[in-house]
């Protein structure tokens, strides 16, 4: 499974760079769809349930991920975000209206919906970040393996770390998020 995840990260890193260079940007949904399709095909040690567009406002997820480790299944509620060419995660503080988890008509941040849903289901809330940053270096690499910037194509951060980043001036950018140690080098 590790090799599969490393391949997804590598592809995402390069697809992001190519999209920017060729002015053919791919959105978060495209990256999610491509990566989830491969995840669904490649392993029997995990299961992926893609969240429909209609259900995303009720769950705060793009997918739910179930991973079997030593015979025990763990669940994760996952929200994906894509870095912009400026290095910022523009949609990190996305507002949601009409979630069934709050009062009708109430607008709340997507991160709050994800947290509420995770508490209801017992899933660990995670963010998967789709990345490319030509300035990535050893300060943004948190892995025991040798530095491989393209492995930062997909990185993972828990909800608590993302909430802290949202409350920090300049915290929505690639470098501060990855220097903070929340996102391991390879997913």
From TrEMBL:
Pfam families: DUF6615. This is DUF6615 family protein. InterPro entries: DUF6615. It comes from Deinococcus multiflagellatus. It comes from the Bacteria.
């Amino acid at each position: 499974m590790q090799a599969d995840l490393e391949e997804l990260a590598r592809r995402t890193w390069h697809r992001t760079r190519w999209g920017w260079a060729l002015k053919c940007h791919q959105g978060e949904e495209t990256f999610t769809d491509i990566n989830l399709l491969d995840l669904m095909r490649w392993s029997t040690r995990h299961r992926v349930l893609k969240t429909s567009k209609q259900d995303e406002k009720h769950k705060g997820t793009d997918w739910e991920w179930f991973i079997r480790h030593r015979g025990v299944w763990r669940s994760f509620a996952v929200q994906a975000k894509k870095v912009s060419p400026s290095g910022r995660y523009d949609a990190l503080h996305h507002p949601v209206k009409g979630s069934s988890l709050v009062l009708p008509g109430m607008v709340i941040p997507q991160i709050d919906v994800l947290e509420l849903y995770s508490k209801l289901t017992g899933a660990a809330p995670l963010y998967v970040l789709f990345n490319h940053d030509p300035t990535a270096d050893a300060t943004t690499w948190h892995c025991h393996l040798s530095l491989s910037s393209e492995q930062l194509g997909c990185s993972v951060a828990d909800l608590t770390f993302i909430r802290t980043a949202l409350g920090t001036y300049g915290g929505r950018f690639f470098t501060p998020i990855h220097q903070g140690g929340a996102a391991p080098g390879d997913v």
